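User: Assemble these into one structure.

Assistant: Restating your components, then the assembled model:
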Amino acid sequence: MTEVGEVLIETVDLHKSFGDLEVLKGINEQIRKGEVVAVIGASGGGKSTFLRCLNMLEEPTSGKVIFEGNVLDSKSTNLNLHRQKIGMVFQQFNVFPHMTVLDNITITPILEKKMKKEDAEKEAMDLLKRIGLEDKAQEYPRKLSGGQKQRLAIVRAMAMHPDIMLFDEPTSALDPEMVKEVLEVIRELAESGMTCVIVTHEMGFAREIADRVLFIDGGVIVEEGTPEEVFEHPKNERTKEFLSKVL
Amino acid sequence: MGLGPSIIDVFLEYWPIFLKGALGTLRFSFIAVFFGSILGCLVSFMQLSKIKVLEVISRAYVNILRGTPLLVQMYIAYFFLPIAFPIMNSLSKETYVLIALIMNSSAYVSEIIRGGINSVDIGQTEAARSLGMTAKNTMLRIVLPQAVKNILPALANEYIAMIKETSMAGTFMLYELMYTRVLLANKFLIWQPLFIIAGIYLIMTTVLTYGVRMLERRLSVSD
């Protein structure tokens, strides 16, 4: 377990509805610096929506998201600056298909952080080396496998030097043989002290890597605790039922 | 009274007139689609805007221009604009007709651009915004470059459609292909020019349609 510090991101009575459907029904949660939090739960329970509210990709219907002491506000231009500090990795990778692998990584630092092209490229090459894709720098993403695309998406977010990384089911769209290589990159990140929130169906991975596990169901956090507490000794009936189905 | 001279004879004698007409047609269509594209871009951004008023105005603009005949729009531009805006009196007759063509084209182009933008996966926008990219840069650097692939062939098709639409400009004595009919009718040539005109339209649209198909193939290779 890593050393955990002050609260990095916090939700206060977070509600989110899509039309008549209330997906989040009041979530109060604090995530501390250096923590690795795994979010588990059945599909439709609200775990992805919770994650997407943390960087305001979904605007909360009510309640607050507080990041590094700032209330995130979708109408404020500062949101872009805060988002630079909140990396996100998607299930569908969402790499930019019209750009080379290198440009995928450098475009945002160059555009939004006014970084010099050479500096951005040098850093991008270092990142690509870390994931073993340096020889693909000038290729377009269509030449990459799913696992390679997802690793690219991870270092693309890393290039912004985020303080926290959000992972939205990062391995769900991958062929089984590619899951491991992506999980390895996430593990390395987590072990380096990066604060991570990972929505995942990989229970083994969650158990192994997380400092804390949240079980979200019906739009609320039903149970939370260390992996041991949640996986070995779940207290709530819904948690028990869910785990009996997936383990 | 017989049929008079053959189509070939008429074409051989008057081909410079038809050539000038065809060039006029290409020119009018190009101007209409070129400026229509610029205006259409603005309209489509208004339509995609989160500001309700802009969205409503642009939607009304598109609905009116697509829901009324171009010929009526041309008449309104031709007769109403000079009265309503005396400052425009100095403009040529051609300009009024072109305004109608440009506005009409912009309505169709805005729908093409809107469709092209909407065809880009929302995940692209989300990824860019999650990195902290501004809305403007996301549109210019991530969404539009990918939308172009769908937009370009559709724009070329709009140009082809416009070639046929500009035939109405002849109604206002503007020198385009259809107007050559009037010029030759003065020489008692009634039916021959019509077939020549139809043939030239057909050649222009066929050649351009083929070009669009090549363009589409080229663009899809980069997928």
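Residues 176-191 of chain A form the longest helix (16 residues).
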